[in-house]
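Consider the following assembly input.
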Amino acid sequence: MPKIKMPKSSPSLDMTPMVDLAFLLVTFFMLTATVRVSEPVVVDAPSSTSEKILPDNIMMITVDKTGRAFYNISNSEVRIHTLMRMGEQYKIQFTDEEKKRFGAMTSFGVPMEKLKEYINMDDTQRQKVKSPGIPLDSTNNQLGDWIQFGRIEAAKQAKIEKDKAVSAGKSFEYEPLRFAIKADGKANYVAVQEIIKVFTKKDIYRFNLITNLEQSTEE
Amino acid sequence: MAEVNTGDSGGGQGKHGKKRAKKLSTRIDMTPMVDLAFLLLTFFVMTSTFNKAKTMEINFPAEPKNDEERQKINNALTFILSKDNSVYYYYGEFYAADNKDGKPATQLEKTNFSKDGIRKLLLERNKNTIEEVNELTRQFKDKGSKMADSTYKRMVVSVKGGKEALTVLIKADDQAIYKNVIDLIDELNICQVGKYAVVDMMPNEFELVTAANTK
């Protein structure tokens, strides 16, 4: 009976191309990954068909399901300066350490009186504590002040950057501060309207409403 | 599996006491490294989020000054959002039940967010604009015409903002949720409505909606 002879070959194969590919992918994903910072509240934004991407230089107000307002401004330099201005306004002194910590924070929803305490917490503590939201009624309109000062400081910062770019001989592209509202789909519209009223009182009428891209689930 | 292949061990201590360099294999076991690489790969694939937040730009009207007259809008359609995703609408101006002009009182029609609801209504009401925009798009896509990108955009905007184009007012009562407002604006964008605004409700309208809700 003729035997079929299998060619003897080494059972170990050359893994180099596979490893190359694996590392290529690892590198790609590492570079494209954006660090997701922990927000104090989870907001499920409604979906829309809009494909505009959110600009980078934004002031963002988050509104959660129960209508609490959270404030955030993307540029950390501007954040720190805004905090200083707010501190002057509300007679609260912040140390350099606190300013630094505040610059690295994400959105927050505590009134000025509790802000110092909130800044000094660590991440896990912040997650546990329940933020009451930034007060925005007419007697204690802290959100209005945050918006006002944030806007002024953003304009100042833009000017500083422009001067720097001009003196270095580079071209400067001015990106205006945009006002974004990220509200939970289940939030009462009146709560969002209150926030918009705060903005319109400061003569800000243009907003970016943050939405998720709609999945094509339409039947 | 995990040990490093060190080649032939104990070589070099020969009879003559000669020191010979160890002969090491040039191959290293890459398995742990590959394991790690794939672990990281899996991790990043799982955690990476591709969809950056999308946004919708919208202008809100300024608070009207008291001495300002309410502007007359032709071809207006008003949507009123209320509880449990309900939508009401009416055309034209609002007339209260006992208006001085002797016009019939405004009746609210009920609709919904389904395909046969708002979409159908808007497509019908905004037919002319949609046709004009489609015509422009066809011209733009047509290779012979060589319409510039910016020209096309400007023309679409001007068509949408034209005098005859539909104007939509969105009003929401205290029981409407934010999602409905966004859904409605989205629907307007799909149906090429260029003129829309989210405005406050009038007391008369509020009464009508409350009555319609309890029906």
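Helices of chain B lie at 31-47, 115-125, 127-141, 149-160, 178-190, 203-214. Ask yourself how this observation constrains the way the partners meet.
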